[in-house]
Amino acid sequence: MSLRIPASHILNASAFARAWNAATAELLSRRTGSHWTGELSSSALSTATAIASLRLIDKRLGATDHVARIAAGEAWLARTQLPDGSWGDTAESPGNLSTTLLCWSVLAALAEARGLPSAVVDRAAAWIGTRAGGTDRTTLAAALARIYGRDKTFSVPILVHTALCGRLGDPDDPATWRVIPQLPFELAALPQASFRLVDLQVVSYALPALIAIGQVRHARAPAWPPLRTLRDLAVAPTLRTLRAIQPAGGGYLEATPLTSFVTMSLAGMDLAEHPVAVEGVAFLVASQRADGAWPIDTNLATWCTTLSVGALAAGGRLADHLDRRDRAAVRDWLLGQQWNRVHPYTGAAPGGWAWTDLPGGVPDADDTSGGLLALAALEAAEDRPLPDSIRGAARGAFGWLFDLANRDGGTPTFCRGWGRLPFDTSCPDITAHVLRAAEAWTAIDAVGKSPRATRALTAARRYLAATQRADGAWWPLWFGNQAHPEQANPAYGTAKVVRATLDRRGAEWLLAAQGPDGGIPSSPGIDATIEETAVAVEALAEVAEHAADREFAGRALLAVGRGLEWLIEHTDGGKVFPAAPIGLYFAKLWYDEALYPLAFTVTAFERAARLLGNTASRHSS
Questions:
Q1: What is the domain class of 338-467 according to CATH?
Q2: Which of the chain's ends, N or C, has fewer CB atoms near its CB within 10 Å?
């Protein structure tokens, strides 16, 4: 790779070139065939729910089919317990009450069945008692209610798991269950189009949990008539719905916790042999890792692939990294992931992309924007007229995105206007992603220039202006920082919006956030991550190249140089990429993805190299 550095004081040119080459080679090496799969972190929460589900299935069937798998998961949890007795969502996460409750419950049930004491269980109980104020059912229910508030998406499943493991009292005693809020599973019998008009109490993607967990609570502690009669009548049709929306692989959303909650709930009401439970068990068995643990989700293959294509294309030289045959293979794979029918789960129209290539994925706005950006980058590398098939895929995807937009002009994740809970509302980083996709396609095809597109994008910009915080930052939805005072990640959110809009106040926030060492954290006093610094460098490189104010552009350029030096140091010259748990799954479950720091760093390196080359040209003219 050739690199023209405008001034030696911006960064060490030779060190940058070596790191750039090394990181790019590493990213290319992680491609498997026609795409990138990535690797999600193992999860204590997922492992606890999985072994609890398998344990209950075996117990209900009088079987021992899963004893070895349960033992492997139990051993993994014992090895990964933190010194204070708690568990976090990842190995790099601090302990939290939700995950620790889940782990404690199933490990205590297993120890109780053996009739043997367990130091692991005792340490966990002591931590929970200190954190929640006790381990009795009333105290635990109140503690979870304080954490999750109105959103029942995760608090009720945790309590059901805890009850089925015998930690809230005798599971056969209705009093044990009355501390658990009753989810209105009967509402799932209504037409899907009406969901936005009723109070589901869970977010859109948690419909399987609404049905199964609502049903086990009803079976164990039913309400008084006539509500009991109404719910009795709703059991059979909502079970049919549960079966109808189960994907071919058995795993709802490819998510171990969600599938486990559904499976254990069916076992808890003596439906261990129901087809949904049988398929759920098959998914859990297939998802366990060699070390005994489970990840939070099977994979993010589509997301990882679009990130990787975007990274390799960020410098305008995708053809240098992927030859024509490889580009065609990646393009065909991406086109194969686009949904071409109504989704049976959310009712999403054709045209979107999910995060995974597996059947449990659900189309969402972030991955649909990512798919559009990747296709635009792949087409920009070709010397040919745009094929009708690609144009049709893009038009379908943009139509899908524009239909999804909320009344506020912003873009939600899954469903337009489904609910008021956080993961169903508009969010800045996804909205900015839509803007970037439209910008990329404007250079290729008229799809981004239609009157409808113009209206939608104008509304999106208004939404972003309205949601900018007083300090100039934006907070994202699906990414956070565990060390941030409010577990937010303004570095990621602001970088994504600045990358799409070149907003001056947002860019100033990024410049002010940069630490003396060059890293860009999400809050003063906490450590920067590779992921955060890389996305901020990418955004500031865009500002440095395009800002009309030369002084402002110059400050952005210097910040890019300092950020690059930080990335070179913290990746050992582009060779080592430790992942930070900045990813947020539903209900604030943390995860890390091995590909994130690598793909984000390559994006920053490629984008900065283009900037520095252009800057050199201007300086020499």
A1: mainly alpha
A2: C
